[in-house]
């Protein structure tokens, strides 16, 4: 597909899904999204360690959301787990994305986080499309397009003998 084919003075521009520009963009998108989550997690770890108390407190205040009483129960009964898993999860998801290792697996967990944030922050004052939803779309894009294969460690990991002997592992990579 050429750009501005009717203009004989325009240079041809090809954009294929498997082309170099697509690979650069997907790698850039993966690294930026990884930095976003890594920074959020590391900041929480530096400030609170594995005792991120805001998570359970936030959940206990979510009485009027679309999730009903579930987040309130989780905040009251699973606070110890949430305090550790939010900063640790964000950090590990971000690190995996930045280096391009286990990107699909990390993106599944990232999509889970963003889906909870999206529904949990369900004020929807600006409609259903908000920053949390856009983050969810970023993670789903990385799952579908296997962005770890573009300038990431997943491209190397997929070629190992271990993964070749266990081809189902390729679904976690990308």
User: What about the largest sheet?
Assistant: none
Please report the number of helical segments.
8
Rg estimate, integer Å: 20 Å
Succession of helices and strands: HHHHHHHH
Distance between the termini: 27 Å
Give the low-pLDDT segments.
none
Number of domains: 1
DSSP E strands, number: 0
- Percent helix among the residues? 55-70%
Approximate strand percentage: under 5%
- Shape descriptor reads globular
Alpha-beta classification: mainly alpha
Rounded mean pLDDT score: 84
Subcellular location: Membrane
Keywords: Membrane, Transmembrane, Transmembrane helix
Protein name: DoxX family protein
Organism: Haloarcula salina
Secondary-structure blueprint:
Elements: H1 20-48, H2 54-60, H3 70-77, H4 79-99, H5 103-120, H6 131-145, H7 153-157, H8 161-165
Account of the protein in words:
- One of its GO terms (cellular component) is membrane.
- This is DoxX family protein.
- This protein has about 170 residues and is mostly helical.
- The protein has one domain.
- About 60% of the residues lie in helices and about 0% in strands.
- It has eight helices and no strands.
- Helix 2 packs antiparallel against helix 3 (about 70-75) and helix 4 packs across helix 5 (about 105-120).
- It is globular and about 55 Å long.
- The two termini are about 25 Å apart.
């Amino acid at each position: 597909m050429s750009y501005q084919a009717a203009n004989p003075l325009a240079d041809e521009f090809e954009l294929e899904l498997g082309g170099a520009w697509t690979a650069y963009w997907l790698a850039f998108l993966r690294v930026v999204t990884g930095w976003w989550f890594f920074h959020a997690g590391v900041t929480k770890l530096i400030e609170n360690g594995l005792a991120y108390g805001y998570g359970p407190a936030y959940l206990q205040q979510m009485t009027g959301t679309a999730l009903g009483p579930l987040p309130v129960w989780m905040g009251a009964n699973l606070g110890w787990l949430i305090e550790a898993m939010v900063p640790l999860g964000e950090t590990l998801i971000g690190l995996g994305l930045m280096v391009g290792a286990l990107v699909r697996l990390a993106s599944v967990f990232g999509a889970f986080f963003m889906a909870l944030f999206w529904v949990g922050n369900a004020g929807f004052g600006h409609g259903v499309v908000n920053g949390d939803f856009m983050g969810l779309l970023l993670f789903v894009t990385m799952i579908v397009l296997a962005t770890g294969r573009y300038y990431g460690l997943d491209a190397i990991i997929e070629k190992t003998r271990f993964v070749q002997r266990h081809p189902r592992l390729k679904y976690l990579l990308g």
